[in-house]
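Summary: Need help interpreting a holo structure output

Steps to reproduce:
1. Submit the protein chain below together with the SMILES for zinc ion.
2. Request a joint structure prediction with the ligand placed.
3. Inspect the structure token block that comes back.

Expected: a single structure record containing both the chain and the bound molecule.
Actual: see attached output.

Input attached:
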Amino acid sequence: MSDPPKPTSQFYKDLRALDQAMSDRWMRATNDNPSRALSYDEMVDIVWSSWSTENGIRTPIFGDIRFTEKQAKAIALLMTKIDGDPKYKFVAAMRKADVSGMFFDDTAYADGLKLVREVVGTSVGRINWRSPGSQFLYIPMHYAAVIELMNEGKISAFEKQDGGLGEWLNKGSFSDEKNALKIVRTQSDAVRRNTIVHELTHAIQDWYDLNIINLYAETDALICGAVSDRVVGRQSDQGAIFDAAYAAAEFVYLKKAVRENARWMAAYKAVGEELKKLDPNWSVSMGFDDAVGKRKGASESDMIKAALRKVTGAANAGARSGSAASAGSRK
Ligand SMILES: [Zn+2]
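--- attached output ---
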């Protein structure tokens, strides 16, 4: 019996130095051929190698895997071997895994509460509008109430590293299962501020148990995030979706986001149209129970309402005593 041929490509060696298991699975999938493009299924097999089949549809199981930053580098290397639709699909799966906490192990995290508090103190004052999609009325005190829930330890906030995966991971995320808000450290202050307001908006939607489709949840979060751009007068991020959100946010910022204003209603709808271009299934496959309002009893909404009463009471007391307590300035 002779041994199987030893893999010799430089790609294999580079990958192996980062993660042995991934390099072995890559070698078996490609026969050590670095010029072969990977399919989506192969990429999932190589990176985390487990699937479930539900209603005839295979989906990757995220399980309890926690990638290290070294493994993130291995994934970044593998990303050079996948392209087009398979790559798009894989990035979407990674982002979903990211929300569920797959990236990274705990060493990648630092406390993010101070940062979140600063952003709420400076960037949400103009958020006071009723969404034509979700029908929810967003007010600055909702953000202060989330900070209160963070102070009480009911929601956690982290800054995280991106492990070199950069744009392929979420700039931020809010896990409604873990009640954890995570913000990637390596981005500009303006993008980070927008991202924090965006994710806090998802936290509000979740804790109020809003029964809404994800299209409205995301449109609302994008617009609230863009209001923080309006505060400094400059769009923080590029792309058609951010253009549309920034345009809609002007109406909110100028207090012209009212049902009677046809231009506003069109601007709101335009954000959703851009989202649908990215993924036509925003209202279907990524329904609200994926992101917000899922399987939560009334207890979460009771708790955020109690937090709201507390911060509103503190703000009123501050106003009465002339010390002008503002959202987020509480210690
Ligand atoms: Zn979002």
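--- end attachment ---

Reviewer comment: Residues 109-311 form one domain. The two ends are 72 Å apart (CA to CA).
Status: needs-info
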